[in-house]
Write a structure and sequence with these properties.
By secondary structure, the protein is mainly α. It contains seven helices and four strands; from the N terminus they run H-H-H-H-H-H-H-E-E-E-E.
């Protein structure tokens, strides 16, 4: 697989810095928070790197994510097929994204894939995080891992998308079912009809508002007003 020419130095430095800051982490027992950080950083990184790659007009087939690693990698002694099966078949067995990310590291899948891919394709760069993003295989590996992450999000109930007025997309509450479910398919969501305001002193009739009748000789509640009422009847001054 080819090395990407003129790969941006800024992106290489970003990837190098992220990994060097975590060199003290034991991959067999990563601390809480590491897994989610690993998944989110690489999702963001490959998205921006591939945006640059596409703008250059390079061959996108070379960076298409694997569904599973090539069979020679899966047959290697370091590859944990039981761990792969849990990720693919039982994503809901991971309570959080952090648990999933830590499992990918602790099971050795991530390191094994990089090491064996470097041997399989004759690209030692894949086994060096300082320069690994220069290889097209890097995006096949991490695109696959990001798809594992997306499958977990879907199984756990990802954020539903709502198209607001004007076509803007908003993220709503998580729910079961397909991730990215659009609740309003039109560009502009229909606004609910405004409720007609009820005039003061009116009661709802059959399909229209009708004036409420006041019982004779008393208040609206049907009881005569007493002398101690706050609102007193006007005294009849006619003689």
């Amino acid at each position: 697989m080819p090395i990407i020419p003129d790969f941006p130095r800024g992106l290489l430095e970003e990837h190098r810095t992220w990994h060097r800051a975590r060199m003290a982490v034991d991959p067999a027992n990563p601390p809480p928070g590491y897994g989610a950080d690993f998944l989110e950083f690489h999702r963001s990184f490959i998205r921006r790197a591939l945006d640059w790659y596409r703008r250059r007009g390079l061959d996108e087939r070379l960076v298409a994510p694997w569904i599973v690693p090539p069979e020679p990698i899966r047959q290697s002694p370091c590859y944990d097929r039981a761990a792969e099966a849990r990720i693919l078949r039982m994503p809901r067995s991971f309570a959080t994204a952090d648990e999933l990310g830590r499992f990918i590291e602790a099971s050795g899948l991530h390191n094994c894939i990089h090491q064996q891919a470097a041997l399989l394709y004759g690209e030692p760069e894949l086994n060096d995080f300082d320069v690994a993003p220069m290889s097209t295989v890097f995006y096949q590996i991490h695109g696959m891992i990001d798809n594992w992450y997306r499958a977990w999000e879907e199984a756990a109930g990802g954020p539903a998308l709502t198209i607001a007025a004007g076509g803007r997309v908003r993220t709503g509450a998580a729910g079961r079912g397909r991730r990215g479910r659009v609740r309003c398919a039109r560009e502009r969501c229909a606004r609910p009809a405004k409720r007609r305001q009820r005039p003061a002193g009116h009661a709802r009739g059959r399909g229209r508002y009708t004036r409420r009748r006041r019982p004779s000789g008393g208040s609206a509640g049907g009881q005569a007003r007493s002398g101690g009422d706050r609102f007193r009847s006007r005294r009849n001054t006619s003689r």
